[in-house]
Amino acid sequence: MNAVHFYQNRQLELYAARNANRLTLRQLVFFGRSMNEERLIKSANYVRTELPVRIAHRLRDLQALPYVVVTNESVAKVYELYWSAFEKLRRYPAITTLAENEAFCSFLRGILNEHLPVIPLLSLGLSLSSPHLAPDYLDSFMRRMLVSRISRRVLAEHHIALTESLVEQRHRIKSRNKAHGDVGIIYTDLRPKESIERCVRLLHAGPNRLVPGLSDQAELTPPEVIIDGDADTRFAYIREHLDYIIFELLKNAMKATATRHRSQGGTGAVPVVRATIVAGPNEVNLRISDQGGGILSPYITSTSDLFSFSHVRNAARMEVDRLGALRLVSASQHGLSATVGEQVGERDTEKKIAPMGMGIGLPMSRIFARYFGGSLELVSLDGWGTDVYLRLPKLGTNLEGLEV
Ligand code: COI
């Protein structure tokens, strides 16, 4: 190791030795609620000092991988991106004025953009490295990488959104007050019913690149989605996370239902998909039930394998289509929009959507669900259909589920 590497690794160790300063959703809301210049600058410096610590933990994780895995082209690219971000962030000078904060936000936007292909790169690299890693190790490595990435993007995006709303507040004409009480990237009055409706609209709209094999193919008729239960429920959550999960679950349910209906001759009406919302005192529950036949696949021996990133557990990961989709996305400029508000949100939708079929949606949805202490479970009634249960805490008091 030469002197520069020695010095850099020493810096890495110093940061990796610190604990992440984890937050709750409630803290993010409370801190952002009454924003002023002083608090915004405090937020900027928190993000500036917190991000390199969180990246350092993951750089250490990457360094601990077997040599044959780190030298895989895609994994090596992620390693480089993280080193470069770590170096830039740790050298970034303290922020003391609003103008400096503006520059910091542009800097963050640049990194957020640069890191868009990280998920397909990691997924591709780790799929190809599956023979060299025990499935449990591979899955826990991926989980730590992905949760940490979500957390870093949340901090950066929340801070950028707080900055934008402070600027807007200063220029605002009274009559154009925002109707909702959003704080940064958190929607304080988020309605799952509206998320479902938004996703269904996109999944029904065809021809639609979002769902190859569903609305792209004329002979597949997408099912209707019936929403029942506590349809008026609202809670405070990150809309992009909820939308990502709901979009993935509905996409799977609708695709399975439409495909099965066609394979059975396509006569009669397509069975509906049912989305049931249940508001508990501490959580919001959502069940999505379909009659798409369940998870009957020669590749899958247990439903937990569906959540695995290892092709030893889930050989479907090595299908040529999937690897092709991953290669395409990781080589593209925008990569996978992991916070797929970008995917289902109204703004910029077309530019950001990733080709589907990469096999990331379900494990990624569970990682989003667990980030603030929720859960995602799947039950297959083989030969009939699938029920997926999503539980999200609504008090916002759980710490981010980061593992060190
Ligand atoms: C990522 O997207 O992987 C990041 O680490 C982004 C963060 C440094 C803002």
TrEMBL record:
Limits of the Histidine kinase/HSP90-like ATPase domain: 237-396
Lineage of the organism: Eukaryota, Fungi, Dikarya, Basidiomycota, Agaricomycotina
Pfam families: BCDHK_Adom3, HATPase_c
Lineage: superkingdom: Eukaryota
Gene Ontology annotations for the cellular component aspect, listed alphabetically: mitochondrial matrix
UniProt keyword Mitochondrion, yes or no: yes
The keyword ATP-binding appears for this protein: yes
EC number(s) reported in the record: 2.7.11.-
Molecular function terms from GO: ATP binding; pyruvate dehydrogenase (acetyl-transferring) kinase activity
Protein name from the UniProt record: Protein-serine/threonine kinase
Signal peptide: none
Keywords: ATP-binding, Kinase, Mitochondrion, Nucleotide-binding, Transferase
Record-level GO BP terms: regulation of glucose metabolic process
Cell compartments where the protein resides: Mitochondrion matrix
Family from the record: Belongs to the PDK/BCKDK protein kinase family.
